[in-house]
Structures are given as C-alpha cells and as structure tokens.
Design goal:
The structure holds 2 protein chains of 2 kinds. Chain A is of the alpha+beta class. In chain A, about 50% of the residues lie in helices and about 10% in strands. Chain B has 16 helices and 10 strands. The chains are: A alpha+beta, B alpha/beta.
Chain lengths: ~150, ~400
C-alpha cells in the first residue's frame, strides 16, 4: 500500500498548515511525522510529501539526506547513539563505545554521534532517542538488560 | 558567586507547569509590557546592554530596532539549536522554565510588532521539546497565546533533524523554510534576517528568556550585574575534567579560575589544570598559565586571544593529550561542515585526516605546515563563520601546544 499519513497525523498537519506562511516550510515537520509513523522515511512518503507541499521530489530527497536524523532504512535493531565529542571523550566515551560493541553489537545498532548537548552528563548515549547520562559500564548494563 | 536571574526557578519542583510557574512570577512582566509603547521596550533593552547569548554577543536592542523599523510582516525566531560542543544551557530553560521563554517571546513579539514566533529546537532534544510543547499548550489554554490573548502571539515549535550548522541563524532560517541548512551570504549594511522574505528577528533562547527580567525591573537592575560592556549574567556551563560539571549562572566578569574552583568543584582527582576551551568548542583554547587573571566577559577573553562564545567551558587536566583533543574537535567539524563552501568542506576534512597521522605518530614536518596553511585557507574565505572558527581552533592548539604536535613527528 502506498504511503499516507494516518488520521492522527492528518489532523496534526491540518493544524500545522495554519502556522506557516508557505507550504514549503512543512517539509521538515512532515518528514518527522512520516518517520515517527513508519520508523523510517519510506520512498513513497517523500513522494507523498512532495505532492502535499508542491515541492519537487528531488528537493525533498536532498533535504532528507542532509539531516543526519532522517533514516531511509527501517532500523532493524535497537539504536544506541554514543556521543564522542570532547567532553564525553574526556570522560571515557571510548570505553563506553567499546563495551557496547563487545557486548551488545549483535542486538543493537551502535552509532557514534557528535555533541548531543549533554556535556554535564558525560559520558552519555541515547537509546532509541532517549538520553541516558552519567554513564558507567554498570549503569549501561542495567539500562540495557532491564528494557 | 552564583547569581540567579534566568535560572531563578530552575530548582523549584514542577517549575515547567503553568500553575507553579504563575506562583513563581512567570507572566508577571506582561502587565508592564503592555502598558508601554513597543519603542519604550526596545529602548529599555538597548539601555540594559543585553547582548546575544548564543555566542556572538551582538547588542540585542539594536537587532530589535532594525526588525521593528523594517516594513513587512515580522517573525520572531528563537534559536534552540544548541549544538556547540560544551554548551548545554538552553536545554535547562526548555526543561525547567519553559514559561519564562514563552513570556520572553510574548514581550519580544510585542516590542517589535510580530504575531508569529517559531522555536527551532535541535532534533536530538526531543524529550526537552516535548516539555516545551506541553508548556506552550498550557499557555494557549490559559490564553497567554493565541487569538484570545491580549496581544496575539502564536508559537510553533519546529524540530531540526541533526545538523550543527543550523545553529547559524541564516542556515536555521533556510531549514525553517524547508531547505538544507546552508548559510546565506551576509549583507554589507545592517538589516534583519529574512524568513520567506519578511523581516525576522533570530535570537538565542537565553537572550529571549532575559527579556522579562529587564522589562520588569528596568535596564538599571540588569546593569547592576556584570561589567560595563558585558552587563548582566550568563548561564555559564562547565564540563570536561571537573568535579561538578553543570550549568551555573553567574555575572559577566567573574574570575574564570574561581568559577572552575567554586562552582565547577575544581579539576577532578586533584589534577592540575592544563587548559580551558572557554566558550564552546569553536573558541580558541587557552593554556592554564594565561588564566590567572582571566575573567568571564567578552572583552577580557578577546584580549587573551580567545572568545567568550556561549560560555560553555571545557576543562582539560594535565593528563589530556592536546593532539587527541584537537583530533576530536576536527573530526567534529569535518562531520558538521555543511559542504557549501570549498575551503570549509575540503579544509575541515583534510585537517581531520592529517591529525590521524599525528595520532599515529607518523606525521612529517610538512604535515604541520600543511595544517597551518589549511587553517589560513579556511579563515575569512567562506560564507559563514564555521570555517574561520575551525581555523581559530587549529591556530589556538598550535600556538599554545605546538611542542606536543612536534613530538608526534617521526
């Protein structure tokens, strides 16, 4: 079935349309809704957003690929993003990354990312988008084994 | 040393909810705002000497004036993209006092004659923008926002999607228009930013959150804090090798070492201080021996050859390798360059790759020269200040710690 927004999202979109002076501005909000709905951005979702905004498919595709948080593939596993920027590195992000690779590499997609704005909680990571700060290897095991 | 203006309500439980916010003074400035003419408010902001708190430190009142004077339907855009490494202050406002930000937006919109505001929040801050959205919803319910408010203001939260460069105001506006975040060329004479061609004010979260205190208590009350040229306070942040990393509001002009000692809890494990990156990754690093008289204000840090930036200090202790630290930052810039200008796209990537050779201790003397020449070729030759910042970062490390790099030459 080709992509369409569910009822809840369609209502949200109707509200959003009133908030922006041009339909073009809806591109990012619509991409977010599409990604939330399907867990990734389907190719036909790009086509659908192109139709809704009257903006060429290729422009929307170029936007999707510019921003690192948009995904064109369905995530197969739980996603863990480990911050690797300076404050986290000074606080041991490399050993966090190694521990994750060694113990959870099979079950999780482990990605290194740049500063998440959580330097006081260094080292940190996000698990499926949720911040987990002040990490130790023990805390990490606890969080990952409970969920 | 702790001076709480913007952070006054941070520790109150449930300060993000409207009931608690109202009990603790939120929205109380609006009465005095609406009693005044918009121009009076702009004059108060000018007199207060409020400077942009996102890193640039430009006089806020002048920006208000320029947008106010320009013809067109005006927009207020709040920059909550907060992606500068070492900076995590705006998220405290989003989490612990979102109504202060909303109050500031209402006052700002009234002052410059706008009815429409966007808050551009970095995509990673989803949990925090949810808190902010709940606060905005409450403010609509209680008619502080929307059609039934005394003065119409609409606030829409717009999520970014992972691009450091969107913290640059013109890239942010491109993103808000539905494009890739590519910075725009800068004008020769002062003019506002433009959102779909209409005059637009772009200010950092903390700047807008400082407006209620100033309009309620007057410019003099704000100037009672800080220095002559850097009045008021800043949500300074501290991270890295310290005992108590965090965000602590203080007056401009306080001693950096005292701040690190008293609020940051000092360098961890009793180690010696080696260097501080004073205001987010993009400000040149300063070695400890230059910091004895360093004060946290724009002028003092400028005189020391660095910059106050966002006030987000990264502290490095005696064990920190400067080669590794620079590699870490160059990898960041390599990853985040938007790719629009060649000197930046190529320079950030090439310098990052050269650093690998220093890390592996396989660098040649020529590598150091190439690094220096790359730095030169990035400075002042691009559309935005990203590349000049990278250049400043490289120069800072080489100026103060060149011997560590020479040790990696085979």
């Amino acid at each position: 079935m080709s992509f369409s927004f569910n009822t809840e999202n369609t209502l949200k979109i109707d509200l959003l349309k009133k908030r922006y002076p041009q339909k073009r501005a809806l591109i990012l909000p619509l991409l977010w809704l599409a990604q939330k709905q399907e867990s990734y951005i389907r190719e036909d979702a790009i086509k659908h957003i192109s139709d809704l905004t009257d903006i060429p498919y290729m422009h929307i595709y170029s936007v999707v690929t510019f921003y690192t948080m948009f995904r064109l593939q369905r995530p197969q596993k739980r996603v863990i993003e480990v911050c690797r920027t300076l404050s986290c590195e000074l606080n041991g992000s490399q050993s966090i990354k190694k521990h994750l690779d060694d113990n959870y590499g099979q079950d999780c997609e482990i990605i290194e990312v740049e500063c998440m704005g959580a330097c006081s909680g260094a080292p940190m990571c996000t698990i499926d988008g949720k911040y987990v700060e002040n990490l130790t290897l023990e805390i990490l095991d606890e969080v990952l084994n409970v969920n | 040393m702790l001076t709480k203006i913007v952070s006054k309500n941070f520790e109150i439980p449930l300060s993000n909810t409207l009931d608690v916010a109202l009990k603790n003074g939120r929205y109380s400035s609006l009465k005095s705002v609406f009693e005044k003419e918009p121009q009076e408010l702009i004059d108060i902001i000018k007199e207060s000497g409020l400077r942009g708190k996102g890193g640039g430190g430009a006089p806020t009142g002048n920006k208000f004036q320029i947008v106010s004077d320009w013809q067109g339907s005006k927009y207020v855009v709040v920059n909550a993209d907060e992606s500068e490494p070492g900076t995590f202050k705006d998220r405290q406002i989003l989490l612990y006092d979102p109504h202060l930000l909303i109050e500031g937006i209402i006052a700002t919109c009234y002052a410059i004659g706008s009815n429409c505001s966007y808050i551009y929040v970095r995509g990673e801050y989803e949990e925090f923008s949810d808190v902010l959205q709940a606060a905005v919803d409450e403010a609509y319910e209680k008619n502080f926002l929307g059609n039934k408010a005394g003065y119409l203001v609409d606030i829409t939260i717009h999520r970014g999607a992972g691009a450091y460069i969107c913290g640059e105001k013109s890239a942010l506006l491109e993103s808000l228009e539905g494009n890739r975040g590519h910075p725009r060329l800068k004008p020769h004479s002062p003019e506002p930013e433009f959102y779909f061609g209409e005059p637009t004010l772009v200010n950092n979260v903390e700047t807008i959150a400082s407006v209620p205190f100033i309009v309620q208590n007057g410019a003099g009350a704000y100037r009672a804090y800080g220095t002559e040229k850097s009045p008021g306070t800043l949500l300074f942040a501290i991270s890295g090798n310290v005992n108590r990393p965090g965000v602590y509001e203080a007056e401009f002009g306080v001693s950096m070492l005292e701040y690190i000692e008293k609020l940051g809890g000092g360098v961890r494990n009793g180690k010696k201080l080696k260097a501080v990156i004073p205001g987010g990754a993009s400000t040149p690093i300063l070695p400890a021996h230059l910091l004895n008289d360093a004060r946290l204000d724009y002028e003092n840090l400028r005189a020391l050859g660095s910059s106050l930036g966002t006030g987000g200090m990264i502290v490095l202790d005696e064990d920190a390798s400067m080669v590794k630290a620079l590699k870490n930052l160059l990898r960041f810039y390599h990853h985040e360059s938007c790719g629009q200008c060649t000197p930046c796209r190529e320079g950030s990537s090439w310098s990052d790759k050269i650093l690998d050779r220093f890390i592996d201790k396989k660098a040649t003397a020529a590598d150091l020269d190439i690094l220096k020449s790359l730095s030169k070729s990035m400075n002042g030759k691009t559309i935005c200040v990203f590349a000049p910042a990278v250049s400043g970062v490289i120069d800072g490390f080489l100026k103060h710690f060149e011997e560590e790099f020479l040790e990696c030459v085979k």
